[in-house]
Amino acid sequence: MQDRDTLYILAREDATQMPAARQRRGGPSEGQMAKRLFVLRLNQPDQPWGHMHLTGLGRSMCAMVHAPESRIAVVDSQSRVWMKDVSGGNGFQPRMAPFAEGGPMTGGIKRAKSFGAELMACTTTRQVFVRKAPGHWELLGEPIPKPQGMSFEDFDRFDANDLYAVGDPGDVWHFDGTQWRKRRFPSKWGLSAVCCAGDGNVYIAAGTTLFRGRGDQWQRLNIKVRLAFPIQDLVWYEDRLWAGTHQGLLVLEGDHLVVPEDVEHEFQHVGGNLAARDGVLLLASWGGAAFKRDGQWTTIFSQHDARTWYANHPGQAWQPPGGA
């Protein structure tokens, strides 16, 4: 999200609709599936939509870099970056060399986030990187011992000297600007999301449970909904913590995670991925996309409507350039 008037949504091809998948012969790899970056300009009602077609990217995610100017970046699991190129180039940047090629990266990039001018990313093997220049990423702090399995699903920070990274299982690390320190945590569930919130607390999702605290002190909070899917995302918006799952959107009221009272049913199934900035909360998932601004919820699109349109207009469906 660039600002309250400019929203970005990253989409990819639906492999389940491809002929090979329908014939149960398997489908393309993630890198073979086209991505499309959409921009929705709410302050341009006559022509609100724009898009960019992207190919050759693996599992991808968006992040905004807000200084010295706002630019959208798409980062994939192998550290390939596409960033809107103001000079007229195609925007693709060199990837970070993996360990097998003499580079620093092990595992794959799991999350990418921006903090002002800094674009950062964490990998599944207890690494957090800061992008210093196109194709040049620096490891944050001294190397952390590699986990036996997978780790670092998410990270967040209050500032450059106060960062938390979480992973699986019950793996919580804190960076103080100089070194990493493993923190004690009361759950051995896989940790899926973390938020360094505006109230000064750190919130960590452990599967279908939520904890609040800092350092080595953590309190388990109550969830008033029976969740079948892990909490996928946490953001701070309107002085409250919001949690996104594939099952729906939740908000923290006191010590209780509940279904927001002002959210209608149509918005409940688009809350998997969350972003909050400049007075806007953006939701997106397989179920569609929506946003909240100035107290009002607005649907961008729903999966049901998209599939209905596709079924009724098969000859008009968009095809990637070159038949990719």
What does this structure look like?
Strand 2 (35-41) and strand 3 (49-54) form a beta hairpin. This protein has 2 helices and 27 strands. The mean pLDDT is 88. Strands 16-17-18-19-23-22-21-20 form an 8-stranded mixed β-sheet, with no helix packed on it. It has one domain: Methylamine Dehydrogenase, Chain H (7 Propeller), CATH 2.130.10.10. The two termini are 28 Å apart. Helix content is 4%, strand content 46%. The chain has 324 residues and is mainly beta. The chain has helices spanning 19-22, 303-312; strands at 6-12, 35-41, 49-54, 60-65, 71-76, 81-83, 92-93, 109-115, 118-123, 127-133, 136-139, 154-159, 162-167, 171-175, 180-183, 191-196, 202-206, 209-214, 217-223, 233-237, 240-245, 248-253, 256-258, 273-277, 280-285, 288-293, 296-302.
Quick recap of the structure?
The chain has 324 residues and is mainly beta. 4% of the residues lie in helices and 46% in strands.
What labels would you give this structure?
46% strand, 4-stranded antiparallel β-sheet, single chain, 324 residues, mainly beta, 2 helices, globular, 8-stranded mixed β-sheet, Methylamine Dehydrogenase, Chain H
List the helices and strands and how they pair.
Blueprint: E1 6-12, H1 19-22, E2 35-41, E3 49-54, E4 60-65, E5 71-76, E6 81-83, E7 92-93, E8 109-115, E9 118-123, E10 127-133, E11 136-139, E12 154-159, E13 162-167, E14 171-175, E15 180-183, E16 191-196, E17 202-206, E18 209-214, E19 217-223, E20 233-237, E21 240-245, E22 248-253, E23 256-258, E24 273-277, E25 280-285, E26 288-293, E27 296-302, H2 303-312
Parallel strand pairs: 19-23
Antiparallel strand pairs: 1-2, 2-3, 4-5, 5-6, 6-7, 8-9, 9-10, 10-11, 12-13, 13-14, 14-15, 16-17, 17-18, 18-19, 20-21, 21-22, 22-23, 24-25, 25-26, 26-27
